[in-house]
Write a structure and sequence with these properties.
Helix content: over 70%
Number of strands: 0
CATH superfamily of the largest domain: Tetracycline Repressor, domain 2
Shape: elongated
CATH class of the largest domain: Mainly Alpha
Largest sheet: none
Order of helices and strands: HHHHHHHHH
Mean pLDDT: 91
CATH topology of the largest domain: Tetracycline Repressor, domain 2
Number of helices: 9
Radius of gyration: 20 Å
Structural class: mainly alpha
Low-confidence stretches: 1-10
Distance between the termini: 66 Å
Length: 197
């Protein structure tokens, strides 16, 4: 017997999912994670709460699913043929991610909430931190294979070095990055990474 394609409530419509996603980002950016609620998201998205619960069983899973999809999709692996080119491209993508109008308000809140909520910290690491790092790792592996970096390069430390300066400048210090900042940072990182060799 051929199964009939489900209709109505059984189908997760992409337009509804998109509206919910936008509502989650808006609510989190405006209210913070602590005041984020399924009710407020549903109201902003113009849907019933059941539409949210068909997709996610809890606020935590809803929030982290939405923010991880946004965050991980923005981490690509540009293969320019050189470590300097790759570094500059990755730094540009990091800058776009961290200065996104909504995410630039969500990120500090996410970091603060993760300190207070171990489960959120765990989900943040598994759904955002680790996948983003894994997408950037090939940049260093290629550089080692090409002889641009020593074979014993600590790739985990190198991954820390790429994101840390931008996060520190924008989120901790609250200082904008001026023209030429990313080029200067790419050169500095390249010098630091090669210095061990």
């Amino acid at each position: 017997m051929t199964r009939r394609t489900p209709t109505g409530a059984a189908v997760l419509q992409s337009s509804v999912t998109s509206a919910i996603t936008e509502a989650v980002l808006d609510e989190w950016a405006e209210q913070g994670y602590g005041r984020l609620s399924m009710e407020a998201v549903a109201k902003r998205a113009g849907v019933g709460k059941s539409a949210l619960y068909r997709r996610w069983p809890s606020k935590l899973e809803m929030a982290m699913s939405v923010i991880s999809e946004f965050s991980v999709s923005s981490a690509t692996d540009p293969d320019t043929g050189s470590l300097r080119g790759d570094l500059r491209a990755v730094l540009g993508l990091l800058m776009e991610w961290m200065t996104h109008p909504r995410f630039s308000r969500i990120l500090p809140d996410l970091v603060a909430e993760a300190v207070r909520t171990p489960e959120l910290a765990r989900v943040n690491l598994t759904m955002i931190g680790t996948p983003r790092r894994e997408r950037t790792r090939p940049m260093f592996e290629r550089a080692i294979a090409r002889g641009e970096l020593p074979p014993d390069t600590d790739v985990e430390l190198a991954l820390d070095l790429v994101a840390a300066p931008i996060y520190w400048r924008l989120t901790v210090r609250g200082v904008p990055a001026g023209a030429g900042y990313l080029d200067a940072l790419a050169d500095l990182l390249l010098d630091a990474l090669r210095a061990r060799g």
